Each structure stands twice: as structure tokens, then as C-alpha cells.
Amino acid sequence: MAVIGFAGTIAVVTGLIHLYLWKRLVRDTTRRGRWRRIGTVAALVLAVLVPLTLVTSRSGVTWLVWPGYLWLAVMFYLLVVMLVLEIPMLVARLALRRRPAAAPTGPVPTDPATESLIAEPALVGGGAPTEPPAPAAPPVPTPAEAGHDPGRRLLLARGAAIFAGLTATGLTGYGVSTALGPPRIDRVRIPLARLPRAMDGLRIATVSDIHLGPLLGRPHTQRIVDLINGLDADLVAVVGDLVDGPVAELGPAAAPLADLRSRHGSFFVTGNHEYYAGVQEWVAEVDRLGLRVLENERQEIVTPRGALDLAGVNDPAGEGTGATGGPDFEKALGGRDPQRPVVLLAHQPVMAQEAARYDVDLQLSGHTHGGQIVPFNLLVGLEQPVVSGRGNVDGTEVYVTNGAGFWGPPVRVGAPPQISLVELRSP
């Protein structure tokens, strides 16, 4: 039922978007005939393709994934560009709509020589006077003279459609090359008030949203592992959304995680997508690969230079699932030594609002993908307090990594894939 509801919602939304795009890109740019019929059929096929792709990709059917997700990205940018063009298009249409000159309303001037002929009826053959000829009706302006030239309006609509099409395909092409390229290393230094001076410089390699699935497999994981191992980090934190499918299907793709190296261990917390893919099986699999899964618990990290607490909470998607359950901050953070700094791993940045109540020094998160596709980041910002990079929520430092993979369209614009090296600094 959840899948049906999801598909129904997507079908309605994409149907309305395609109706708008059909009006602007097909009806407004063509005359009645073969080309309009072809465009209409194409719009209908593409409208069905989007929800069909989203549903079948969850069912293991992958042959629609590439065309469906690429069209989803192109559709998004066509919509954005056409909406932006609505105002200048309206101004242009108003400029074309010139009013015809008004007919004169005062007395019509006459020639003095003929004024008498107008004043007195002419006599024909000595008979009765004849009436003067009725004045001619003013000419009716043509559509072009009235400012409604169909040719100009058609040219304007086609120009806007060509601009939108080139912009959408160009941005999508750039986004594909960025999304499929290697993750970039983001290095950030974050001071913690309670961090002992001896632990200054402790480094945590942080990655999220790897999203193994129909488009990203074992080579993607291996590339991430190689990049993290090259950072020579003290800790490794994988903060959720590792997979988009069951262990039976994606277990081999996740296998390179067993090769992760760090001085004090590798750790994992669940993201919302684990709960769509068999969370209990994945928790067991990740543990088997050598990552410590922090399920509403904390681990004391003891180094020759001092100690800190590393805690982890489950994603809110676990609420009411009967599996690992949702986040339990009291279980993970209650009763700890208040003098010791604590770093919390939590998939969603919004969880910092609760973490701040437990005096958490730093929360490491993912989930947002940095917005993934500009200007979608503006919508993400309505839900999450931090979309990308460093922020502060009620006194708790928050760092959000962009994620190393993608969800949906294999496209990233304005938010490149990322692995973050967080260096903790003492005051």
C-alpha cells in the first residue's frame, strides 16, 4: 500500500508538471497537425515514465533506470527554466499586443468648395434632391495590426522553448559528469570547548549517502574506501543511507567496506533508506564487515592522548517499524561524563535540535545531499537547519557532508559528491 500511495502521489505531481510543459513546449510552439500530435504523445509517454521508473527501480527492474532518471532531471530543469521565463514572456506578449488607433470622434473636416454640396442636397435632372453618400466605415485592423500576430507569438514561444531545452540538457549533462565523478575531499576544522589539548587534531573521516543501488555498485564503494584510507584518519564515520536495496542484491557491492582503515575504528548509523531495504539484515551485514553499528548507544574512544565519547542514534524512519526502532537520545547520551566531549553520529541534521538538549559538542550528519540539484537545496533548507557544511543549532556544532552518492537522477549540480575529513581542535 505504501508503494501504491507513493506511486500515486508521484503520478499526480508529474502529471501536472507534464501538462504545464506540454502547454509551453508543444501547444504554444506548434500549429495544429502532425508535429503537435507527436509532441502530445511524447509528453504522455514521458509523464508515465517517471512514476514507472521510481516504482520498478525499487522492485529490481533496472532497464528503465537510466532513461527514467535522466528525464526526471531534464524535466525538473525544464520546469524551473520555464517558470523563470514566465514573467519576461508575459512582458514580451504585452509588448506585442499594440492597440489599434482610435477612430476620430469629432466633426469631420470638409473642403469649402464642397461644403455647399454637403449642406444642400443635389438635384438630379430637376427632380427630387438625392441624399449624400454615406461615409465609409473605418477599416478593420488585421490581427498583425492589432498586435496579435500569430507568427510573432509562435516565434517567441519557440525561442523560449529552445532556450529552456538547451539549458536543461546542458545542466543535466554537467550534473551527470559531476555525480559520476570521484567524491571531493572537504577538510574542515571544528573547535570543541571540552576537547583536551592533547587530543587536538583528532581526525574523523566522514561519509554519508553512498546509496548503493541500480546505478552505483562495487566500483563506487571501492573508490570511496580507497579515498578514505588515503586520509589516514583516526576514526571513520558512515552516517547512513548506505544502500537502496536488500543484502541479497547489494551485499557484494558493499563488501569493500571491510577494507576501511583507521586508528580507532569505523562506525555506522542507520539512515532512512536502510529502513526501506531490510534494516536488520543490513545492520548485521555492516557489523560483519567490521564497522561498529551504533544503535542508540555510545562508544568511549580512548587514545594515548585522551578520551571522548562517540555516540550514534537511529534514524527517525525507524519509529514504529518494530525493527531497530527510532532514535533514543536518552539511551545514547544519558548518564555520561559531562566533562568529556561527545561527538554524535545522526543521519539527519534536524536531529541536532534534540541533541542540543543533551549538550552534544558536535553532530556529524548527511541526508541532505547538499541539495543535490540546485535550486532544490532551497526546499531542503525548509526542513533541515543545515543543508551543507558547518552550522550551529542551539549551541551544538553541526557538520553536514554532501554525501558520496546520489538518489534518483544521477545528477549533482551545485553540490558535488563529498567525503569529509573533520579535524577536531581544542580551544
UniProtKB/TrEMBL annotation:
<keyword id="KW-1133">Transmembrane helix</keyword>
<dbReference type="GO" id="GO:0009245">
    <property type="term" value="P:lipid A biosynthetic process"/>
</dbReference>
<keyword id="KW-0378">Hydrolase</keyword>
<feature type="region of interest" description="Disordered">
    <location>
        <begin position="310"/>
        <end position="334"/>
    </location>
</feature>
<dbReference type="InterPro" id="IPR029052">
    <property type="entry name" value="Metallo-depent_PP-like"/>
</dbReference>
<feature type="transmembrane region" description="Helical">
    <location>
        <begin position="6"/>
        <end position="26"/>
    </location>
</feature>
<dbReference type="InterPro" id="IPR051158">
    <property type="entry name" value="Metallophosphoesterase_sf"/>
</dbReference>
<feature type="domain" description="Calcineurin-like phosphoesterase">
    <location>
        <begin position="202"/>
        <end position="370"/>
    </location>
</feature>
<comment type="similarity">
    <text>Belongs to the metallophosphoesterase superfamily.</text>
</comment>
<keyword id="KW-0812">Transmembrane</keyword>
<protein>
    <submittedName>
        <fullName>Membrane protein</fullName>
    </submittedName>
</protein>
<feature type="region of interest" description="Disordered">
    <location>
        <begin position="128"/>
        <end position="149"/>
    </location>
</feature>
<feature type="compositionally biased region" description="Pro residues">
    <location>
        <begin position="130"/>
        <end position="142"/>
    </location>
</feature>
<dbReference type="GO" id="GO:0016020">
    <property type="term" value="C:membrane"/>
</dbReference>
<dbReference type="InterPro" id="IPR004843">
    <property type="entry name" value="Calcineurin-like_PHP"/>
</dbReference>
<dbReference type="GO" id="GO:0046872">
    <property type="term" value="F:metal ion binding"/>
</dbReference>
<feature type="transmembrane region" description="Helical">
    <location>
        <begin position="38"/>
        <end position="57"/>
    </location>
</feature>
<feature type="transmembrane region" description="Helical">
    <location>
        <begin position="69"/>
        <end position="91"/>
    </location>
</feature>
<keyword id="KW-0479">Metal-binding</keyword>
<keyword id="KW-0472">Membrane</keyword>
<dbReference type="Pfam" id="PF00149">
    <property type="entry name" value="Metallophos"/>
</dbReference>
<dbReference type="GO" id="GO:0008758">
    <property type="term" value="F:UDP-2,3-diacylglucosamine hydrolase activity"/>
</dbReference>
